[in-house]
Amino acid sequence: MSSALARLAEDPELHVDPPEGAERIVDDRYCVTIGSERRWAGVCRLRIADDAAAVVAVTGEILELVGSIERTFWSVGSTAEPQSLPERLRVLGWRDPETPWDPVVAAMVLEEEPPPADGIAVRRIEAFDDHLTGLEIMLASDAFSEEAKARERAEARQTFERRMRRGGLQWLAVLDDEPVAFAIADRSPLGLYLAGGSTLPEARGRGCYRALVRARWDEAVALGLPGLAVQAQYKSSAPILRRLGFVETGTVHTLRSPVAT
């Protein structure tokens, strides 16, 4: 099992280039990424001494860095220290995020060639119209509020241009001449990270997800990367990925900072 891929699966924000305009702060004890205009922040790769005072001190230091950024997400993986860190943070006021996604996901990697998906065409997104199609497939998921959908649509052109500058790692799966599934990935020296994907409800169970995994595997091979890494929902994508050959290497808790008082 590749330890590099496992590290990517657990802490992708440390190993994938940060978005344009974002600031990444890497310390022996943590990695903090702050988005452009300070609209969001991510915390990962936590290594804190197994001492209550140290936990309070280091998390306080991070809270000073992110300030009042409300959308701050903490990813606490299996190798985080101390091992009891998720429970300690919850006691201190950290909470599960208010999203449809599970607060605990599987870190998974793939090092062996996955099976093909016959009958499903996949094309690389290179035009803005295809990007808009993929966006609407993604927004068909229940995971997005109306406010979030409006924001994604308003920023569609910027998002497309930014992703094209990063290599254009977006794909559509086509069934019966209609695009029905969408997927993206991020490059890293450690492997290719599966950064998201969606399938329209009426097209699920027909191999589209499998086809998009295979397309990203082929991309990793073309780039000379050792395989794929992903964080997968236990109730949805993780069982499918296991059938495709992915191996679970750890778990990741996602938490939000305490509400400011």
Question: How many strands?
Answer: 11
Largest sheet: 11 strands, mixed
Reading side by side through the largest sheet, how are the strands ordered?
Answer: 1-2-3-4-11-5-10-9-8-7-6
- Please compute the radius of gyration using only Cα atoms: 18 Å
- Counting copies of identical and different chains, the oligomeric state is single chain
The structural class is alpha+beta
Please report the distance between the alpha carbons of the first and last residues: 45 Å
Share of β-strand residues:
25-35%
Helix content class: 25-40%
> Average pLDDT across residues?
93
Q: Total helix count?
A: 9
Spans where pLDDT lies below 50 across 5 or more residues: none
Helix and strand string, N-terminal first?
Answer: HHEEEHEHEEHHHEEEHEHE
Shape: globular
Q: What does it look like?
A:
With 261 residues, the chain is an alpha+beta fold. It is built from 9 helices and 11 strands. It has an 11-stranded mixed β-sheet, with helices on both faces. It is globular, with a radius of gyration of 18 Å.
